[in-house]
Amino acid sequence: MEVAMSVAAAFATRMIPLRYISMLGNAAGLAYGLGSGSFSSIVEYGVSLPLNAARARQMRKLIVAVRQAAETDLNIEWLKPFAHARRFKAGEMIFRKGDKASEAFIVTEGEVEIPEAGANLRPGDMFGEMALFTHDGARLASAVCRTDVETLYITYEEFEQHYFQNPEFGLYLVRLIVRRLERNHRRALSRLEAV
Asked: For the Cyclic nucleotide-binding domain, which residue ranges apply (predicted)?
């Protein structure tokens, strides 16, 4: 039975089926240990079975959370403990197009204009994150304060950590970037149609 589970695990291409196969193998090993009186097998599989069950449960919860994140906007509350506050005055340039980027921002108070995109950002909106995905790390647009502005910012190092550790955040970023690309595409098409 254990050999069959090992072979099945080798063919598993996704994590959740692999966990379930491991759980079956653990159950078989535990049954063998109990039947043969092998204390080491009882301990090994008695510990591994609940660990694999817990990991499978975590993965299922993660899948549900990612699906929910795909259908809703990101709640940034969890990000606040990792972010740093920064204030800007009305008319102040936060960054210019082409600047080397080192951080992403979230508006918490006030309004920020992205002139190249014709966009006005309000509390809860994230900006400056797209440069993380460019080949040279340069800002793709400028950001200027229309009013006095309060922001939270995270460095790109922190940003990358959250991107890789929090799938909901990663999915939110992908959706945000796709929305911006769609908006820019529509704007470009309307300019072409006007010509």
From this structure: 86-161
DSSP-derived letter for residue 104 is E
Q: Tens digits of per-residue pLDDT, 23-32?
A: 998 999 999 9
Whole-angstrom Cα distance, residue 127 to residue 107? 8
Which residues touch 15 (CB under 8 Å, ≥6 apart)?
59
3-class DSSP assignment, residue 143: strand
Contacts of 101 (CB under 8 A, 6+ apart): 95, 128, 131, 132, 137, 138, 139, 156
Average pLDDT of 105-121?
Answer: 93
At residue 194, what is the residue type?
Answer: A
For 146, the token pair is 């229309």
Distance (Å, rounded) from C-alpha 173 to C-alpha 52?
A: 30
147: left (phi over 0), alpha (psi -120 to 50) or beta: beta
